[in-house]
Design brief:
The complex is a heterodimer. By secondary structure, chain A is of the alpha/beta class. Chain A has twelve helices and 24 strands. In chain B, 32% of the residues are buried.
Chain lengths: 511, 189
């Protein structure tokens, strides 16, 4: 437990707090906004919906960590049930369960945002200091080759055999035990993330953090935000006390799903119908290669190598697939592998000989986050044909990589399952079956639902992160991004929150 | 005036009577369907359900036995879905679901029990079919041309495997080491 974090169960009665700023959410963006406000000497509080977990609570068991660390116990889906959306909850947000990948927003993307979406002050040169600072904070470094596990080495071998572009990734970990359980939270405190690094820095600087507190709605008068209404929950998740925070500045950092959902159920002005629109997710699917040798992909660092042969960040590119290893523990693997019953169990006997790659689409599909009658988020995302083709291309590329690395057979878990043993068989595949609802798809990078830009007809917040119509309401999470970024977003979210923090501080000081 | 009012009253009365009759018929039909749908299901003595109803529990138990069926019949080293209490795990998991998702899951179970067998050519509830026939119904759902039915099957499959592969006894067949924190010397394999 981080000193200074108050759990919902410890709130003994209804609470009214009067502060300079309140931050909703404590993931990559929220933690940085909180820290910077506190370091500026402001009275600031963060409210976090989920729990504050300690490394001692991270048991490396899927059945226990899914409900603890993930929204909807890992079962959040798009409305049409085609894509599973994995999102974190709890102090530290998704930085607690992610695989620690650190890639900056590509320059081409930042240029595109300036050129096409009217984002000011966020050119590559403008962002560089924020990237450098956050990378120092989180001890970002390249993953050494000796730390590459067999699954990642299969990707490297495939890239080298085909002459495809690939290379090592950077990460934010120190003292890594290479246990392989990153996506279930680090039991060894090796992740240099929001939970371990940034939130404690914020608390040291004077910030207060409440976990297990759900923000129900923002309060505002249509022109200015005035605070939030929230509910503290007990250990069983039941409402325990009301929490009202009076603040002239509210920073939304509840993710590209949670932030627009909260804004929508709060009646935040949206004169041009932009709020919640523009959802991107990097939807992905997997291909599994069966090798004669043991891979045991659950051991070691899950993602340390990438293939960028089919990834370009140029606008309008037809190469929009990012390929990385994606090994799952038994529950995740069993749910993804095709079939059921005896045949499925026979397939699970080969689990330790599988290498698994995922193709994530740098997507152009524009989805939406709406709210249902209960105020909960509804994710609408109908994958475009262009993106579907990218997914098919990516899965074929994964299969080629695995075959080139020596896989005896590659399975793409579509309906019906696609199995190939040679490149010739791969080339004869009917790729039309690779589509949503046919292949199990997962998305872990929602973004783009409260886009920044100077034109209120096309964006929700200004380039400063402040809402176009509601003074004092800021956004500091992946909602800000006008497009997909085509890579892991955590460093971009940290960096944008840091880059925009001076504007938040200035407003909280009453200017 | 009085006559007009009486006529009007009469028309309204007839309409109301017809409406009430139709509503009553619907209620009776619904009650009959509900009674038929939910009768004849018994949970094991001592089982306390958190989220599932008894009939849902029985449907889940039947489906879990087939979805996690062993690849080697009679092999005592393979735990069954009952051994690993997959239905109990699903009951707990459903209790954590968002209300909307929980309702959808309940509807899918009703479809699996009463409608899917008919679609696959059987004139019986899913839970009363032979294992081979249950497999045929599940396979039809897995391959269904309807996206939501396939999604429902995938959701059920995921819940079954959460319950099954959380159990240490299943790790051996997958040659999985288990959590490093609790791994015994030599692993679970």
């Amino acid at each position: 437990m981080i000193a200074g974090v108050v759990r919902g169960r410890e709130v003994t009665g209804d609470l009214v707090l009067e502060v300079d700023a309140v931050v909703v959410g404590t993931g990559a963006g929220g933690s940085v906004a909180l820290r910077e406000l506190a370091r500026a000497g402001l009275n600031v509080v963060a409210l976090e919906e989920g729990p504050c977990s300690t490394s001692g609570e991270l048991t490396q068991r899927e059945d226990e960590m899914l409900p603890l660390l993930f929204q909807d116990a890992g079962a959040r889906m798009t409305q049409d049930l085609a894509i599973r959306v994995l999102q974190g909850r709890g102090v530290g947000g998704s930085t607690v369960h992610n695989t620690n990948l650190c890639k900056r927003t590509p320059d081409e993307i930042l240029d595109l945002w300036a050129r096409r979406y009217g984002v000011l002050g966020a050119a590559p040169g403008d962002l560089r200091p924020a990237f450098e600072a956050i990378e120092r904070d989180l001890s970002v470094s390249e993953i050494d080759a000796p730390m590459r596990n067999a699954n990642n080495d299969a990707l490297r071998a495939g890239c080298e055999a085909l002459g495809w572009r690939g290379g090592p990734l950077k990460h934010n970990r120190v003292g890594c035990q290479q246990s392989g359980f990153c996506e279930l939270g680090c039991a060894y405190d090796a992740k240099q993330n929001a939970l371990k690094i940034v939130v404690p820095q914020a608390v040291i600087a004077g910030a207060r953090v409440y976990s297990d507190v759900t923000v129900l709605r923002l309060s505002h008068d249509g022109a200015r935000v005035t605070g939030v209404h929230a509910e503290a929950r007990d250990a069983a998740g039941l409402p325990r006390a009301r929490v009202e925070v009076l603040a002239p500045v509210v920073v939304l950092a509840a993710s590209a799903v949670g932030s627009p959902a909260l804004a929508r159920r709060s009646g935040v002005p949206d004169p041009y119908g932009q709020l919640g629109r523009g959802l991107r997710m990097h939807p992905g699917a997997i291909a599994a290669g069966r090798f004669d040798r043991e891979i045991a992909g659950w051991r070691g660092i899950p993602q340390s190598y990438e293939c960028t042969e089919h990834l370009s960040h140029e606008e309008g590119s037809d190469e929009r697939v990012w390929i990385v290893p994606a090994f799952a523990h038994p529950i995740g693997a069993a749910a993804t592998l095709p079939g059921f019953g005896a045949a499925h169990m026979a397939g699970m006997r080969a689990y330790s000989n599988l290498a698994v790659l995922t193709a994530m689409v740098h997507d152009e599909t524009s989805g939406e986050v709406a709210v249902d009658d209960d105020g909960g988020p509804v994710l609408r995302y109908a994958m475009s044909e262009a993106d579907r083709r990218q997914l098919a291309k990516g899965l074929v590329a994964c299969a080629r990589l695995l075959l080139a690395a020596g896989a005896r057979e590659v399975t793409i878990p579509a309906v019906p399952a696609l199995r190939v043993r040679t490149v010739a068989e791969l080339e004869r595949l009917d790729l039309a079956v690779i589509r949503p609802h046919s292949v199990p798809m997962t998305a872990v990078h929602p973004m783009g639902t409260m886009r920044m830009g100077e034109d209120p007809h096309k964006s929700v917040v200004r380039s400063t992160g402040e809402h176009h119509q509601l003074r004092g309401l800021f956004v500091a999470d992946g909602s800000l991004f006008p497009t997909s970024i085509g890579g892991p977003p955590q460093i971009s979210i940290y960096a944008f929150a840091l880059h925009l923090a001076p504007h938040v501080v200035e407003r909280a000081r009453g200017r | 005036m009085m006559r007009a009012a009486s006529d009007r009253t009469g028309r309204i009365s007839r309409r109301r009577a017809l409406g009430a009759g139709a509503a009553l018929a619907l209620v009776l039909a619904g009650a009959t369907v509900a009674a038929v749908r939910t009768r004849g299901y018994a949970v094991p003595p001592g089982r306390r359900l958190v989220a599932l109803t008894p009939w849902q529990f029985v449907v889940v138990r039947s489906a879990a036995r087939r979805i996690a069926a062993p690849d080697r019949e009679g092999d005592p080293s393979i735990p069954s879905a009952d051994d690993t209490d997959v239905p109990g795990s699903i009951d707990l998991w459903v209790s954590r679901m968002h209300g909307r998702v929980r309702r959808d899951f309940g509807r899918f179970l009703a479809y699996l029990e009463h409608v899917a067998p008919v679609g696959a050519g059987f004139a019986s509830r899913f839970t009363r079919l032979s294992p081979a026939d249950q497999d045929a119904v599940l396979a039809a759902l897995e391959q269904s041309p309807h996206d939501r039915l396939r999604a429902g099957f995938e959701g059920l499959k995921s819940l079954v495997f959460i319950g099954y592969y959380r159990d240490v006894r299943t790790w051996k067949l997958a040659r999985y080491d288990g959590p490093l924190l609790a791994r015994p010397l030599g692993g679970w394999r």
